Amino acid sequence: MNETTGGIEDGDGSGIVKKFMFVNRKAPYGTIYALEGLEVVLISAAFDQDVSMVFLDDGVYQLAKGQHTKAIDVKNFSPTYRALEGYDIEKLYVERESLEIRGLNAGDLLVPVEVLSSAAMGDLMKTQDVVIGF
Amino acid sequence: MALEVNGKTYETDEEGYLLNLSEWDEDIAKVLAESEKVEMTENHWEVVNFLREYYNDYQIAPAVRVLTKAIGKKLGAEKGNSKYLYELFPYGPAKQACKIAGLPKPTGCI
Q1: Which among A8, A90, B39, B62 has the fewest CB atoms less than 10 Å away?
Q2: How far apart are CA A27 and CA A31, in angstroms?
Q3: Closest listed residue to residue A81, CA positions, set A39, A123, A50, A48
């Protein structure tokens, strides 16, 4: 929880807003990437930037409903994606091809997302100031 | 580090946050509050219980800004502002209320 904005604030409050896109490609468990990526996004929310998240490849599993992690003895952090709305992070994009290959559709996901084709996703990436991959 | 309540020992991290949140109960909260020099009133409990619910729903401790907004939504605008929350928890609702609620230190809290 940020008690302050870390000093990245203009006196008149009109700081520069950049477009940050966080691209999540990995399955939620087995590596730390998904959880770390999510934490970075939550922290980035404190800086009033234009933040979006992309889920593609196995990254789409991060948003899948019905994650049960007891048997692998790690915390199921998937409910945290539902908190993103409260952090004003509402631009969530999922690649259609990644869903289809895995037999998923938007209804299998924990949160409302915009499903984009691979080509449209590429176009969207081109409009970003910063793209960070996890 | 460890915390002793009613003859039982509870593990905490180096800053005094309870390690196992399922061990939390109101007696532990009172001891944690004492260590923060916070005297628990009904209004304090309201925030602490809200935080526990939030954690239960989302598996994270909310940022102050998010907590403030969510409290305003649930308990009304006169409570959903940082002045009110800092009056209850002078060293920061994040740091103190989360600790008393037995939650981990909030993500990104410096």
Answers
A1: B39
A2: 8
A3: A39
- Return the active site residues of B: 109
Reported ipTM: the value is 0.84
Write down the pTM of the prediction. 0.86
Token readout for B34 is: 């004492």
Cα separation values, A36 from A29, B40, B77, Å: 11, 35, 33
For B37-82, write each residue's pLDDT tens digit: 999 999 999 999 999 999 999 999 998 889 999 999 999 999 999 8
Contact check, Cβ <8 Å, A39/B108:
yes
* Alpha helix positions (H), chain A: 33-44, 96-101, 118-126
| Residue A94 β-bridge partners | A55, A115
Task: Walk me through the domains of chain A, giving residue ranges and CATH numbers.
Answer: 19-133 (3.40.1260.10)
Q: What are phi and psi of B79, to 5 degrees?
A: -110, -15
CB-CB: which of A3, A77, A86 is closest to B94? A3
Domain B2-100 has CATH 1.10.10.370: yes
CB atoms within 10 A of CB A102: 14
